[in-house]
Amino acid sequence: MLSTLLQAAVEAVPQQQEMSESIIGMAVKGGWLMIVLLVLSILALYIFGKKWWMIRQAGHIDRNFMNDIKDYIHDGKLKSAEALCEHYDTPVARMIQTGIQRIGRPLGDIQTAVENTGNVEVARLEKGLPYLATIAGGAPMIGFLGTVVGMVQAFFNMAHAGSNVDISLLSGGIYTAMITTVGGLVVGILAYFGYNFLTAKVSDVVFQMESSTIDFMDLLNEPSEK
Question: Which sign does the torsion angle of CA 188, 189, 190, 194 carry?
Fold first, then answer.
């Protein structure tokens, strides 16, 4: 039994090597446009990884954060409240810190300052996402360009072959056309799903920011209601 499994494993290694070599070979036959798609795929992965980590850190905050801020403000410990905001270093914390620094001014001014800080934070989170959306839309178009180039190449070869038309003259161009199309669609689909995933995560952070802003403004309104 053991010898049979070892033999199967040994036979599988050459098959895997042949498969990897065939994939690389197909990509090479796709032409120079495959290099462009490779660069776009690397760029898309970089943007996705960087923004995912940034958005993940932005949404990470203690559930007791607002309760601690409320206790500090009620006790008049504004410096401690600011220090707590600096400790978390998230969009929500920076918004609340902006509001704390303006306590004593009219509530309308405080709310405007907090909202402006929130807009800056949202813009920072969304920075780079348009590039991912551009890759999602542009990669399939580059793939289709490869399709057109491949078909032009195929018909060019036919035109110069005269009466000696052979199927091999068509296969090279059609092969290029199909490979670039597949490559463009793969890169575009992955970038599209990545863009929508990150957009949804940004929306979650924005909801958290809006909820915290409402809680903070209600907190400042409490003394006036007593």
Answer: positive
Neighbours of 82 (CB within 10 A): 18
Q: Is the pLDDT of residue 9 over 80?
A: no
C-alpha to C-alpha distance for 166 and 175, rounded to whole angstroms: 15
Residue-by-residue DSSP string for 3-72 = HHHHHHHHHHHHHHHHHHHHHHHHHHHT-THHHHHHHHHHHHHHHHHHHHHHHHHHT---TTHHHHHHHH
Look up residue 204 and give its two tokens: 């979650």
Q: How far is CA 207 from the centre of its chain?
A: 19
212 CB contacts (<8 Å, ≥6 apart)? Answer: 66, 92, 95, 96
Give pTM, 2 decimals: 0.76
Q: Could you report how far apart the first and last alpha carbons of the chain are, in Å?
A: 82
